[in-house]
Request: fold
Amino acid sequence: MRNIAMKVSYDGTAYHGFQTQPELVTVQDELEQAILFLTGEKVKLTSSGRTDAGVHAKGQVINLQTEARIPVDRWCHAMNSRLPDDIVVWHAEEVPAEFHARRSAKRKTYRYTIRCGRFMDPFKRRFEFHHPGKLDVESMRMGLLHLIGEHDFTSYCSTRTASVSHVRTIYDAYIECEPVDQELQSYAMHIFVTGNGFLYNMVRIIVGTLMEVGEGKRSSNAIGEILAARNRSKAGPTAMAHGLMLWEVFYDKEAKKY
Reply:
């Protein structure tokens, strides 16, 4: 039995999340169907983590157990020929039997994109949340600093979170801004958050609260005060799903990229 790991990118717009759900179209369903066509095997693949409906991925990682003898350098082409155009497998390798896409992951990075300014970019509208008003980027950057470290993130997760512990570690959190598009009179702001794990809606609630900081409705210090309160009602709204992307997953003891 071989253990094959793959990196997958997908536009999550048309899917009800990554994980299989009864009578709903998901990314996992499409991948497993492609594997069935290729190998004749009904596999249950493992992913580095779920993404919700409408959320995208640049570097999702999956692994599967297979008896197929397809050469590793043929997996990507073979999978992509049987997948819809909004899902692409772009890296594959044979990994040790103990590799598990979720349990072996050491840290993950998510990116949330906000287009700030007068007009949205029609070509990126499925991947950017459009905020027509001004946002104070420096205050948002200062607010993010309060999240770095090990904390209880109860305030920044959905009340439907199933995890027993809400303690997570954020290793890095920062904002990058692209130059202003003079024609659209707007620019893209990318919020990156890297941690050892994330709770249900955690990044989207952080972003929704940060936008209130950027709008001047809250101070940058409020991000830390909300964190300490351990109360979801103290935080801001959950940002829209389409601006969120699973950016990268890191493995092994040094948390290198897979």
User: Anything to note?
Assistant: Residues 27-39 form the longest helix (13 residues). Residues 11 and 101 are 20 Å apart (CA to CA). The mean pLDDT is 95. The longest strand covers residues 105-117.
